[in-house]
Amino acid sequence: MRAQFVLSEIGVGLRRNLTMTFAVVVSVALSLALFGGSLLMSDQVNTMKGYWYDKVNVSVFLCNKSDAESDPNCAKGAVTEDQKREIEADLKKMSVVDSVVHESQDEAYKHYKEQFGDSPLASSLTPDQMQESYRIKLKDPEKYQVIATAFDGRDGVQSVQDQKGILDNLFELLNGMNWAARAVMALMLVVALMLIVNTVRVSAFSRRRETGIMRLVGASGFYIQAPFIMEAAVAGLIGGGVACAFLVVARYFIIDHGLALSEKLNLINFIGWDAVLAKLPLILATSFLMPALAAFFALRKYLKV
What is the SS3 assignment for the chain? Predict the structure, then answer.
């Protein structure tokens, strides 16, 4: 009988404050959708880091004849065959190196034509203007500085370049976007909490006569507060369900279908459904507990029981 009364009071309260309940649902849904989105963005960045850092190469570019005339690092002339053999041998001896691949001037020219064949500059280049290089795969991509220290400034070496630096700039941008999403999420969360507190205050004020009677007949504090707390929790749970649905639909249409980014951007290793589904219970639990706790503390001030 008590459970039936509490449930009936929840329904009455939600219908009586329909506009504010709708506002709570929307604000909770938006804030938790951003919360889930920021968690998934973090997972995506970490997945991309693991995927791309594993493919990172360090490139040791060798001096050619044109570099000898214009580049201070190649002031001693173009790289010699003996220097190339020494550089390759020293690279293969290093414990941080996983593999070493030599790219000749002809191969470098071929790769340049494949990638930038439409560039006006491509028609004026010749293979002898391209740089030979050694492409080094490291066992640990963080150990780039070991290669740079050992070979920067060495005779025959024009420069040492790390592809990880380019990726770091990309990941810093993605992390910045993720923190911006979290800031908006925090703002929406504050708005949602304020709406919940105001909804509980209005509901408690509108039913002050009923709660007064319940207090006079000896009803416990929890029994009086339970309908108000559950109203907020139910509204929040509906918002959490909307947020979960939004994340699932967004993952389906943006990555798998609709935009189909997984097909158009084959170079990106997108997070799977397991990552999305793992976040849904957390969002639902947050959507239930957050409004319930907010209502509980609001009632202690606005509903003297």
Answer: CHHHHHHHHHHHHHHHCHHHHHHHHHHHHHHHHHHHHHHHHHHHHHHHHHHHHCCCEEEEEECCHHHHHHCHHHCCCCCCHHHHHHHHHHHHHCCCEEEEEEECHHHHHHHHHHHHCCCHHHHHCCHHHCCCEEEEEECCHHHHHHHHHHHCCCCCEEEEEECHHHHHHHHHHHHHHHHHHHHHHHHHHHHHHHHHHHHHHHHHHHCHHHHHHHHHCCCCHHHHHHHHHHHHHHHHHHHHHHHHHHHHHHHHHHHHCCCCHHHHCCCCCCCCHHHHHHHHHHHHHHHHHHHHHHHHHHHHHHCCC
CA 291 to chain centre: 26
For residue range 76-125, list pLDDT tens digits in order: 888 888 889 999 898 888 888 888 888 888 888 888 777 776 666 667 77
- Sheet containing 133-138, strands listed edge to edge, beginning at the edge strand earlier in sequence: 97-103, 133-138, 57-62, 157-162
Predicted pLDDT of residue 1: 40
Q: Is there a contact between 58 and 163 (Cβ–Cβ < 8 Å)?
A: yes
Amino acid type, 63? C
**Torsion angle, alpha carbons of 223, 229, 230, 231, to 10:** 120
Query: What does pTM read for this prediction?
Result: 0.66
